[in-house]
Design brief:
- This protein has 2 helices and 7 strands, in the order E-H-E-E-E-E-E-E-H.
- The chain is of the alpha+beta class.
- It has a single domain (2-138), classed as START domain (Alpha-D-Glucose-1,6-Bisphosphate, Chain A, domain 4), CATH 3.30.530.
- The chain starts with a strand and ends with a helix.
- Pfam families: Polyketide_cyc2 (PF10604).
């Protein structure tokens, strides 16, 4: 099983960051790669579309409001992996009220690609996503 993780300090309190990204259906609010999200099954599943129109279906597998994190599994996607589970976490930074650390990590099995290729793919998605989050919060 392969894995990757990206962290980024963003210019907002953990509470503000979580209020933006903590909703399972909130990706279009901060992630340009996902302009469309439709909640299904009472919000436990999201049907996403990327700019190319590809469909990605994900299921929420863990959610913790108090600790500000959630995990999800990909059920359908155009990515060369299976067994994908990812977690987004928001951490407080001691002594910095108006900053937070956001960590986006995932583990997955390559399927039709090398481990290096899928690690590079998801590292790039997470990095670009956290850069977009930083830009949204800095505006």
């Amino acid at each position: 099983m392969a894995s990757t993780s990206v962290s980024r300090t963003v210019p907002a309190s953990p509470e503000k960051v979580w209020s933006l990204i903590g909703g399972f259906d909130a990706l279009p609010d901060w992630l340009p790669y996902i302009p469309e999200s439709t909640p299904l099954e009472g919000g436990r599943v999201r049907r996403l579309k990327n700019p190319e129109g590809d469909v990605i279906i994900e299921r929420l597998v863990d959610f913790n409001e108090t600790e500000r994190h959630y995990s999800y599994a990909i059920l359908q996607a155009p990515f060369p992996v299976n067994g994908y589970v990812s977690t987004i976490r928001v951490h407080a930074i001691p002594g910095r009220e108006n900053a937070a650390e956001v960590q986006w990590s995932g583990r997955f099995n390559p399927d039709g690609a090398t481990e290096d290729q899928v690690v590079e793919l998801f590292t790039g998605i997470y990095r670009d996503g956290l850069d977009a989050l930083h830009e949204t919060l800095a505006a």
